[in-house]
Model the fold of this input.
Amino acid sequence: MIDHDLLARVATVNASAEFNRWAGFEVVSAEAGRVTLRMNWKAEAGQYSGFLHAGLIGALIDTAGGFAALTRAGMVLTSHFSVNCLAPAVGNAFIADAQVIRAGKRQIFTRVDLFAEDSAGGRKLVATGETILMTVGA
Amino acid sequence: MIDHDLLARVATVNASAEFNRWAGFEVVSAEAGRVTLRMNWKAEAGQYSGFLHAGLIGALIDTAGGFAALTRAGMVLTSHFSVNCLAPAVGNAFIADAQVIRAGKRQIFTRVDLFAEDSAGGRKLVATGETILMTVGA
Amino acid sequence: MIDHDLLARVATVNASAEFNRWAGFEVVSAEAGRVTLRMNWKAEAGQYSGFLHAGLIGALIDTAGGFAALTRAGMVLTSHFSVNCLAPAVGNAFIADAQVIRAGKRQIFTRVDLFAEDSAGGRKLVATGETILMTVGA
Amino acid sequence: MIDHDLLARVATVNASAEFNRWAGFEVVSAEAGRVTLRMNWKAEAGQYSGFLHAGLIGALIDTAGGFAALTRAGMVLTSHFSVNCLAPAVGNAFIADAQVIRAGKRQIFTRVDLFAEDSAGGRKLVATGETILMTVGA
Done:
């Protein structure tokens, strides 16, 4: 269930990051511990074969994981993230679905799935990742 | 010692990736098993506090690791990469120094250090990472 | 649904590894792409505070991931694994639940959850992990 | 340069962990930010082919990284570790060389190299890893 206050809060942080605006990241949904982020394909996001650059795969995973953590712990800083490239990231859009696995006082752990969406709306899992975030004391 | 043929080859691949051109990645040096990549700061690369976005930290690490692998194994595909954010990534430029740790027939493992450069040319280690790449059969 | 042929096959590999026998790893269930591994607590498995040693957390995650891959691809070799320690690993038994996320021709990716079981049979997620395995050509 | 007080302190922690005693981990050297750990091969440490079990590779990496962190920050807890298996871990002994990359107030990051030693004393890099540790407040 989408939490509209949370969604507005996450969307505000998203809009405040210049890279997110350049990339066209859009916060599609947010609830406590879970955020979905979407990016439409654009040519400037490509690697040498024209697939989504692994750097942007990582950016989507890191950002979605950070936003999921934000729903549980307020402002956070990325400490670590990892990315598994499962299949060529080709699509009209990319959707990162992030979930908090454990929210401690000092650290938040998340898992993220990244899907490619084709022109018919079909989705394929193309990458997975993990993020570890540090809480930022009040 | 810079290998000028290798440098030209890596620079050509770098120039063929639209994201690398947008980000302004520049291949500074290349030798067998080692590549240095540089990116000048620009506002569109920032996260919400105006530091370099962790996604771009990852993009620099993934790209530099892939280029180091390329010097040993030709075209490769990223399988996995991870990023440790050690300190706020603030600087005039960012330099990723990637080294091949092990080049097998099917997999290449690299380690990458990412430095921030200040206006006086001083460098600080702000992130580290690892990449695993799959060789692409001829 | 447990596949009894697969279970027997995985249990045979498990019994062939001396460390697994020492640790007391038991294959509880196996189906295509999913394996559950169990280990009863014993004092020799402890770190300095008497919790399960992170090395054994990793061993359970690596082993369960490898067995899940084996159900899809036969013999495999660990290429990479990672471990997140979410909470102190204290319990009467530990259960690693591994799932194949992607089985390619050359690489298998898995995700693993590690639960601690208390004396009443209650379970708590204490660690998560990922494994990447290379297939071993016939 | 070995610091004998630090070495004694790390060796005491090592001796207090039952798993470390079972495995035969020995702290070979310790200085601020760097620890070397050694383990002689024994059959109970083997996987199904008789190589060192990836779980023990991870245990050596996690333990050496934790000890390196201890030299900088006192008692710590593992938050995350990762392991790259570069080559079959076959040898008479295994040596883990861990180095602190960054020691913050809350987190310590380390890098670890794992070498196999043959009967002639020759060393080969068989695995690498990273560990992230949380400091434990006084």
About this structure: Chain A has a mean pLDDT of 95. Strands of chain A lie at 26-31, 34-40, 76-85, 93-103, 107-117, 123-135.
